[in-house]
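Page 47, continued from p. 46.
Same chain as before, 326 aa.
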Amino acid sequence: MRRREFMTLLGGAAVAWPLAARAQQGMPMIGFLSSRSPDESASLVSAFRQGLRDTGFIEGQNVSIAFRWAEGRYDRLPALAAEVVELRVALVFSAGGAPPALAAKTATSTIPVVFSAVSDPVDVGLVTSLNRPGGNVTGMGVFNAALGPKRMELLKELIPSASVLAYLLNPSHPSQQNETNGAMTVARALGIELHIFRANSEREIEGAYAEISKLRPAALVVATDPFFDSQRDRLVALSARHAIAAAYGWREYVLAGGLISYGTDLPDAYRQGGVYAGRILKGEKPADLPVAQPTKFDLAINLITAKALGLEVPPPLLARADEVIE
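Result:
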């Protein structure tokens, strides 16, 4: 038998050990596989650690975490997932939507995988159903791809005269076609002319904004996407530079100077992911843990940005906001 084949078999046997047996060799290790960047994910990592603490696990005391960051480069995820599996981790936590979750699922069918913030986990093939995931994968679902059309409605409410909107998507994201279809349906219902732009690199983002600026739409919707999240400050700065009213999926964009956001509570999804990870480390099976769904949606508005854009936020919309930056 070749040495590589022997090591592969050995590795396969290792990851199949029961968690309790591995714990006897030392504290369990969690592989944290993220498509995002560490500098803009600090609050999310903190939320994940809080979820672990809620179940009795404290990093450095009775659990360790090995971080791997793709920094928006989805093509790096398969190799990073393989690295995590080779570490013989007790569990993989995939952070940043569907791409790292799919990479983790491909890399192992035995190590438990908990995903965070995935839109349409059934549609992308992560689980067989939300209530009974089956296999070794479960986690936190979000509706952000489906919420893109809601952001279009909010922009129409903010700018009633809007007749042309732009929509920025990452063509590499598994849910981008579903999001496109939903956006086009709502555009027709609202009587809006919708233009789709796509970008999956820094240079393409710059190019997309240049084209959007030429179009002169009333507003722009930026899709929820881990790569875009890793470029959050750039996107907000480009919207300001081109004087584009833009809607985003997470409140963090509004805190960074974006105009408006509507979406689920992302830190809470990571906290819940930490809770699921702790429960699995204690012996529960991913197949028995239903995919958790968000129950709270936050609307955030930056009045400073609205003023800079010459926009007056309608009082009814302002009254519904969960957070207002003044």
